[in-house]
Amino acid sequence: MDQGIYTAAAGAMCMEQRLNIISNNIANINTVGFKKDDISFEEFARLLDTSTLAQGQYKRTSLDVITEKEHVDTTQGPIHHTGNPLDLAIIGKGFFVVKTDKGMKYTRAGNFHISKDNLLVDIHGNAVQGEGGDITLEQGKVVISPDGNIEVNGSSIDKLKVVDIPPKYLIKQGRNLFGIRKGGMPVPIDVPSISQGSLEMSNVEAVKEMVGLITTQRAYESFQKVIKTFKDTYSMSIRDIGILA
């Protein structure tokens, strides 16, 4: 079969992937600390065979198709002031560290609270980490300085652990948490910039995402039309051959 139909089908799959990403971004437009995903088309690859096309896998043979690369956009989101002393926003680079059942994870979502065990935890109950480990907060006035130092009733308790991770090593693992790809490692930030009583909101721009949704949908429909044109052409050729024979 002509290479054109495979190339068009691969393009349609790329647009479908982009639609899924944009839809997820829009769904998280109000998620605290959410970082949107993006996708770029970088190179040409090869399809292994026609079965890989149906599975959405890009493997190598002799057919050139567009491939894509997903990445996390770590642009700062808008800061919303809440007045809640346990709401924290990182200004600039950095991630909070939380302890989960699957090890240490990283997040920009600073909507924390105190657990029944007096631990500072995120909305999923994961313990927020300080330089000394889990952070225990007794009853009293909590003051967190811009550099992350924590005081309760004037007594120093701990300092928030904030780390930097290059965007290329970030991998989303659900619940607004990030893991680190192989080859990456968190780098402690000694002097972070923390805003107490504030939250960093999602960095998704509604208008931009909606425009992207519309243009991607149109591109997807264009690829579908190309595929249909090829199929109609092949059908006509087969029919004409049958008549001539």
Protein architecture, described:
With 245 residues, the protein is α+β, with helices and mostly antiparallel strands. It has two domains: 3-74 and 204-244; 79-200, no CATH class. It has three helices and 19 strands. It has helices at 3-27, 50-55, 206-244, and strands at residues 37-46, 64-72, 79-81, 88-90, 95-100, 103-107, 113-114, 120-121, 127-130, 133-134, 142-144, 149-152, 155-159, 162-164, 170-172, 178-180, 187-188, 194-196, 198-200. The strands form seven sheets. Strands 5, 6, 9, 10, 14 and 17 form a six-stranded antiparallel sheet that branches. The protein has a three-stranded antiparallel sheet with strand order 11-12-13, with no helix packed on it. Helix 1 (3-27) packs antiparallel against helix 3 (206-244).
Question: What's the short story on this structure?
Answer:
The chain is an alpha+beta fold and 245 residues long. Helix content is 29%, strand content 31%. The protein has 2 domains: 3-74 and 204-244; 79-200, no CATH class.
Content of β-strand: 25-35%
Chain-averaged pLDDT: 86
Largest sheet: 6 strands, antiparallel
Distance between the termini: 21 Å
- Shape by Cα distribution: elongated
**If you compute it from the alpha carbons, what radius of gyration comes out, rounded to the nearest whole angstrom?**
25 Å
| Strand segment tally | 19
